[in-house]
Design brief:
Layout lengths: L1 H10 L1 H17 L36 H13 L13 H5 L8 E4 L3 H4 L9 E4 L1 H8 L10 H9 L2 H5 L6
Antiparallel strand pairs: 1-2
Helix pairs in contact: 1-2
Length: about 170
């Protein structure tokens, strides 16, 4: 690997210096996304793209307690409910068989980025499938957070959502 880098610096010095500067800038800013695309990474026809180069990113995120997910699932069983999405009612076990057993994501109904550190109770969490979880977090039309209830209302207001509103809840 070192020999390849040395060869690249000797044969393409300006390009490699630009990449090195982008790495240095990325390290100092915490964003390593400014490395310019390399010529062999871009398909002029737009039908393919080279992927797989290693990038390092530094991020700050809120701590989550993984035990809360297990407790939320246990509470759901204790209450005699199914482990399914609170928004669309998708049930992984029904769809995927045994591999889907107890598979679900957990969404904080009150966002930690707004509340900051706080005590989270099981009632503060919702069971959601990956698609609904992404839609809860998706930035769109000025909103970057939605509760499962708000997402369910949005789905019901779409033509497809109205057609599927007969799904038993």
């Amino acid at each position: 690997m070192t020999a390849l880098i040395a060869e690249a610096f000797s044969t393409r010095p300006s390009e490699m210096m630009e990449a090195a500067q982008a790495i240095e800038d990325g390290i100092s800013s915490g964003e390593l996304i400014k490395i310019p695309p390399q010529p062999d990474e871009v398909d002029p026809d737009g039908y393919a793209a080279r992927e797989g180069r290693l990038l390092a990113r530094w991020a700050i995120s809120r701590e989550r307690n993984p035990a809360l997910r297990k407790r939320k699932i246990a509470e759901t069983y204790r209450l005699g409910r199914r482990i399914q999405c609170d928004v669309c009612r998708f049930h992984f076990l029904d769809a995927y068989g045994p591999i889907g057993q107890d598979y679900i994501e957990v969404h904080h109904i009150q966002p930690l980025h707004i509340s900051g550190p706080r005590e989270t109770r099981l009632n503060d969490l919702a069971l959601v499938c990956a698609n609904c979880h992404r839609m809860c977090h998706r930035s769109h039309l000025g909103s970057s957070w939605r509760t499962p209830d708000a997402l369910r209302r949005m789905m019901a207001d779409t033509p497809r959502g109205r057609l599927d509103s007969t799904i038993s809840r």
